[in-house]
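note to self: dont lose this again. the chain is below, predicted strucutre after it. 187 aa total, dont forget to put it in the shared folder this time
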Amino acid sequence: MNCVNSRVEIEDTIKKSRFVGVIIPCQTESEAIQHLNQKYQQHANASHIAFAYRIKSTTGIITRFHDAGEPSGTAGRPIFQYLEGHDLINLICLVIRYYGGIKLGAGGLTRAYGNTAKKTIENSTINKFVEYTQVKFKLHYNQMQNFEYQLAKLKGTIIKKEFSENINLLVKIPTINSNTLTSLFTT
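---
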């Protein structure tokens, strides 16, 4: 699985219609819907705002796509197919159309929406998806230096520190490395 780290926006003109492609990384379905609503407000004069998203959740990958009033299967599905083809998750891809007065037909619409999504993906920095987990640790003060060294080596970060008789930590670490760290330092 792959993901993008930053927002990307491109523009294209096809037979006088203006197409704006946008990719926005998001972690939850509600975050994707929030970004979609922002684009509806930002592009209130757009003819159509078609979209597709793929979000990894605890129950699997949530997928949605919408044609936004274009003929069925000509807008949302082509966008979705490019996301799925690149095995992209945790993002929403929108294609915003401002109608230019020339009808494109079903095939033309499918190509226009699909190619805009494709160009947006091509302009994105794609990275392998790394799943993270949060783990709590209780350490003695003399363990802290070694812990920080091992945590950095395993690409983890400290989210929260509490100092008392011991040090209580909440760390975020790639799931594949969590057992290694846990075996070095009992939780």
